[in-house]
Write a structure and sequence with these properties.
Elements lengths: L19 H5 L6 E6 L13 E6 L3 H9 L10 E5 L14 E5 L7 E9 L10 E6 L4 H9 L1
InterPro entries: Peptidase_S1_PA, Peptidase_S1_PA_chymotrypsin, Ser/Thr_Proteases_Immune/Dev, Trypsin_dom
GO molecular function: metal ion binding; serine-type endopeptidase activity
Keywords: Calcium, Disulfide bond, Hydrolase, Metal-binding, Protease, Serine protease, Zymogen
Length: about 150
């Protein structure tokens, strides 16, 4: 980076799922949190950071759902979360982290996904959002952090 990041209430570091156990997990049927300033149910951008907990889908079920509209889901590179009516990320949330808290007591949150895309309009029942699967990119991230 050209300059140091200035931490604030809305900008701070987060842990990566580096352990072999976390890298192997699908996180299927668990809840994860996502936060952002994207569009809300009234179609305007939020003026405050909003958060929501979303259920992570089985990637096979998600891939089958999106195959019905000819959108491929790469199960090793992507993951799906959400699908409850009016509970979703939306335009302006792309790039936001999908985070979880470790099951180990007093351990920090870690990022499992990054908001990629979803259906229009946002928050459609039975249509999850698509997230980039962070565990697939851990080695690349760590390599680039060294530079």
């Amino acid at each position: 980076m050209a300059e140091n990041v200035k931490y604030s209430d809305t900008i701070r570091p987060i842990c990566l799922p580096q352990s072999p156990e976390l890298r192997a997990m699908t996180f299927y049927n668990e809840y994860a949190d996502v936060a952002g300033w994207g569009r809300t149910e009234v179609s305007s951008y939020s003026t405050v950071k909003r958060t929501i907990s979303l259920l992570i889908w089985d990637t096979d079920a998600c891939a089958k759902r999106f195959a019905t509209i000819n959108i491929p889901v790469n199960k090793s590179l992507q993951m799906c979360a959400g699908g409850q009516a009016l509970q979703d990320t939306c335009q302006g949330d792309s790039g936001a982290p999908l985070t979880m808290r470790s099951r180990v007591m007093n351990s920090p949150h870690f990022v499992v996904g990054i908001v990629s895309f979803g259906m229009q309009p946002c928050g459609m029942q039975s249509w999850p959002g698509i997230y980039t699967r962070v565990t697939h990119y851990i080695d690349w991230i760590l390599h680039n952090l060294e530079d």
